[in-house]
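hey so u asked for the seq, here:
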Amino acid sequence: MAKNKGNEVSAVRRAKHGTALSIFFGVLSVIYVLPILIVLMNSFKLKAYINRYPFKIGTGKMFVGLDNYVEGIKRIEFFKAFGYSLFITVFSVALIILCTSMCAWYITRVQTKFTKAIYMLCLFSMIVPFQMVMFTLSKIANMLHLSNPVGIILVYLGFGAGLAVFMFTGFVKSIPLEIEEAAMIDGCTPVQTFFQVVFPILKPTAITVAILQAMWIWNDYLLPYLVLDIKKYKTIPIAIQYLKGGYGSIDWGAMMAMLVLAIIPIIIFYIACQKYIIEGVVAGAVKG
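ran it, structure tokens below
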């Protein structure tokens, strides 16, 4: 009887604890989502009412429909900026995944002082603040003629390699070496072994890395602003800032509309791939 009562009390405590956590995380979710909802709501309002009634739903005179979207697209050449952002993001993420997965496999399977030094350098790159190198980076990128959408992809590879190598290395350590040995006995070269055997197993971590890197690169403002020739090439974050006029005036309606258009692609990408995030992170931490 005493044991049953103890179990009942523990179950009640766990239920209360679970309810409290659910309420807490529910409130936290609302706090995170609220700014996005406010931006979406204000994107349909007349500019004059956004500052006066930022938390009101646009109705009557306040509601302008898609006018802010049309105006914003015209003023900043949105689709051109969208094309540059898409090109840079897609190819940067693809290059990061390809190069860092191969690097992580090599580091894990070839245990030498050289590979350990590479791994430590990758870890060190994660803790160096970008502000410490941004001016030097800008100068070097200009000297090497990297101030274009193709050149900045190489810059993103350098900055994204640290985290990606760290995650891939942790996952590769959990892959049984016997699988690769069996492939080589069957006649696979090291390159074939990697692409036909190892890389498919790395899929959860690869998707996790892709999501994290894509969200960073798509939303990045400072690195493209420093590296790119912004007279010729503007990504979406850079283009949006041109909605600011002289003397601090800002077309808030058009800016809110462009922010909504800017976040929609990355939200869709995240929702489509979110189930792989926890799986990839946990898998990469198995023996990291």
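The CA atoms of residues 93 and 260 lie 23 Å apart. The chain has 14 helices and no strands.
lmk if thats what u needed
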